[in-house]
UniProtKB/TrEMBL annotation:
GO terms assigned for molecular function: chloride transmembrane transporter activity
Keywords: Membrane, Transmembrane, Transmembrane helix
Protein name: Voltage-gated chloride channel protein
Cellular component, GO annotation: membrane
Pfam families reported in the protein's UniProt record: Voltage_CLC
Coiled-coil residues: none
TM segment ranges: 21-41, 53-70, 146-171, 183-204, 216-238, 258-275, 336-357, 377-396
Protein's membrane topology: Multi-pass membrane protein
UniProt superkingdom: Bacteria
Gene3D superfamilies to which the protein is assigned, alphabetical: Clc chloride channel (1.10.3080.10)
Location relative to the cell: Membrane
Main location: membrane
Length: 420
């Protein structure tokens, strides 16, 4: 590399200008798309709750979405995994059709009563819209990787109202044990600006009241460590169960639209039997878990409904259901570990996600953004322990292993942890 007669800081200015412009454009596109998506989701949820009979049409809705993806969406069906693959090995610009297809598919899933989330949709829209800038600005592969990461960060930040967690998520989700610091500035700018764009459109995010805290003592740390182990095992079980359900459906039902039709019929019958507590996003139940004891089996109900919905092919995300599972699991553990309901609900909220997505840093920062800085030490411990105990699998199949999560002692060197 040739030495320059200009200071490094002067040469940095064009880089800052370039990525401020690109990240700003990504923020406008992603923040606007997320705002429209959240408004559509709110309408769909309200309509479903006032017309509960619509759950019986869930099988037909699943068949319709499956048929549309079969005909025009096969190239984008991989969703988040396609974006991660393109960052690792850039091939071609993500087709623009991914954004409207996943938007429509997710809103339909929620309207008719599937148990899915929303992060996958926002991330896919953010990444897809960001990638459309690649040919416009004639970006190289190295810049395109950063562009996609900024789009992921912007989508995550704008849908949850957590700009710092969104920025770190875009850096952390690609590979276990490694962060991409070359993209830290674009991801930060895109995430922070996208969150502001969403709020400018009138988006309001759910407030979770963290009204109970305990001092950091040996007993409280030990209790949080035990909870982190349970949260990590729950995250691992969710990831493996979702992959297993999807694989089972693909092996035994060759015609793709039939998978959500059958899955939708099972979910509809389960709702008729158990009620509507475990469908949709489940935000009211999450809020309830911060305020009072909930049924100790609530996390199991949401777990099964979500695995059935995603495994059979309904579109959406995994993260909000993971928040539900974590918050209600934490609520159930609170009396056993002698900690406040709100504290353990908040820790479960982020730690199960940390274990399932292998993103302990983003999850810790999310806890601080959502619940306040006082939860920071406990959240960090719970998220890191959950990350370790969830193994080397996760909800994103394309996520690679940059570094193993831990080093085994020499005596166990022949029994390396499985990598998937």
């Amino acid at each position: 590399m040739k030495p320059s007669r200009y200071p490094e800081q002067i040469l940095l200015l064009p880089y800052i200008g370039k990525w401020t412009l690109l990240a700003g454009l990504i923020a406008v596109l992603s923040g606007t798309a997320s705002a429209f998506f959240l408004f559509a989701l709110e309408f769909a949820t309200t309509w479903r709750e006032t017309h509960p009979w619509i759950i019986w049409l869930l099988p037909l809705a699943g068949f319709a979405v499956g048929w549309i993806y079969l005909k025009v969406g096969s190239s984008v069906e991989a969703g988040n995994n396609l974006l991660i693959d393109e960052i690792h090995d850039p091939q071609k610009v993500v087709p623009l059709r991914m954004a409207p297809l996943v938007l429509i598919g997710t809103v339909v899933s929620h309207l008719f009563g599937a148990s899915v989330g929303r992060e996958g949709t926002a991330v896919q829209m953010g990444g897809t819209l960001a990638d459309q800038l690649t040919p416009i600005f004639r970006l190289r592969h190295s810049d395109r990787r950063i562009l996609l990461m900024a789009g992921i960060s912007a989508g995550f930040a704008s849908v949850f109202g957590t700009p710092l967690a969104g920025a770190i998520f875009g850096l952390e989700v690609l590979a276990i044990g490694r962060l991409r610091y070359d993209a830290i500035f674009p991801c930060m700018v895109a995430a922070i600006a996208a969150d502001q764009v969403g709020m400018a459109w009138g988006v309001h995010h759910t407030h979770y009241a963290m009204n109970a805290m305990v001092p950091v003592t040996c007993l409280s740390v030990a209790a949080v460590l035990v909870a982190g182990i349970v949260f990590g095992l729950a995250g691992m079980a969710f990831a493996k169960s979702t992959h297993a359900a999807s694989g089972f459906m693909k092996r035994h039902i060759a015609y793709a639209p039939l998978r959500p039709l059958i899955g939708g019929a099972v979910v509809a019958l389960a709702v008729w039997w158990l009620g509507t507590r475990y469908i949709g996003l489940g935000i009211p139940v999450i809020v309830e878990a911060f305020q009072q004891p909930v049924a100790p089996w609530d996390f199991i109900g949401k777990f099964v409904f979500t695995v059935g919905s995603l495994g059979s092919g309904f579109k959406g995300g995994e993260v909000t259901p993971l928040f539900y599972i974590g918050a209600t699991l934490g609520n159930a553990l609170a009396p056993l570990l002698h900690l406040p309901f709100a504290l353990l609900a908040g820790l479960g909220f982020v730690a199960v996600f940390a274990g399932a997505a292998n993103t302990p840093l983003a999850s810790t920062i999310m806890a601080i953004e959502l619940f306040g800085p006082q939860i920071g030490p406990f959240a960090a411990l719970a998220c890191v322990v959950a990350y370790l105990f969830s193994g080397h699998c996760g909800i994103y199949r394309s996520q690679r292993v940059g570094l193993l999560k831990y080093r085994l002692p020499p005596a166990a060197s022949d029994r390396k942890p499985p990598v998937s």
